[in-house]
Design goal:
Glutaredoxin, about 210 residues, 2 domains, 5 strands
Length: about 210
């Protein structure tokens, strides 16, 4: 084999090896493997408020108008059943149709790390019409303003949102929701049983039935 042929083969080996390495790196991702879902309505680390024996679990999207409509109803339920119901919120951002939903979920998770998950949860729904339909940059600015207003470190939240720090936490909720067959928000469960809708009377009846068991 000529010297030129050996050089050419060496160059080809290096080029092909480099391409394989780049392909593997591009497909490995920095987020790690995608979470696997299970038919788990609630997990041990799910965000919760209240101390009642009845579990009310909402799979929700902070930008979703229907979730925004359900929000005051669920707040009223928690007031009327104080000490009887524990509310859990699980992320299910409908990213295909709500461009700011993932950002909202990231903001709530970041607030949770600062000890104010439910305060941010409420701020996002109370002001949903203000930020939900804005372009991504303006929506984030609005959300960071709400965070500052409730005493959170907005710079830390911005860093968390921009780096997608809690993406896998959110994706775990989404994976569980997909495994459960959820395709719309809000989807609500009372003691593991899916409710037909989020009307006050529906939730009331489901909770009363659960309390009697």
């Amino acid at each position: 084999m000529s010297r030129e042929a050996k050089i050419l083969i060496g160059v080809l080996v290096v080029v092909v090896g480099g391409m394989i390495g780049l392909f593997a790196l591009a497909n490995s991702g920095s987020d790690g493997p995608a979470p696997k879902g299970s038919k788990t309505v609630v997990r041990a680390d799910s965000h919760k408020t209240g101390s009642g024996s009845v579990q009310l679990v909402e799979f929700g999207d902070y930008e979703c108008p229907a979730c925004g409509a359900a929000y005051p109803t669920i707040k009223q339920i928690m007031k009327d059943y104080d000490g009887k119901v524990t509310l859990y919120f699980r992320n299910f951002p409908l990213v295909q149709i709500h461009k700011n939903a993932m950002m909202g979920a990231e903001a709530a998770e970041s607030a949770g790390a600062q000890g104010k998950y439910w305060e941010m949860h409420d701020a996002l729904y109370d002001n949903q019409k203000e930020w939900g339909e804005l372009n991504s940059s303006d929506a984030e600015t609005k959300v960071l303003g709400y965070a500052k207003g409730i005493g959170l470190d907005s710079d830390k939240m911005k860093s968390d949102i921009d780096s997608e720090k809690y993406k896998q936490v959110i994706q775990q909720d989404m994976a569980d929701g997909n495994a459960l067959g959820i395709d719309s928000t809000p989807t609500i469960y009372v003691n593991g049983v899916k409710t037909q809708d989020y009307q006050y009377s529906t939730l009331r009846d489901a909770i009363n039935a659960a309390l009697k068991k």
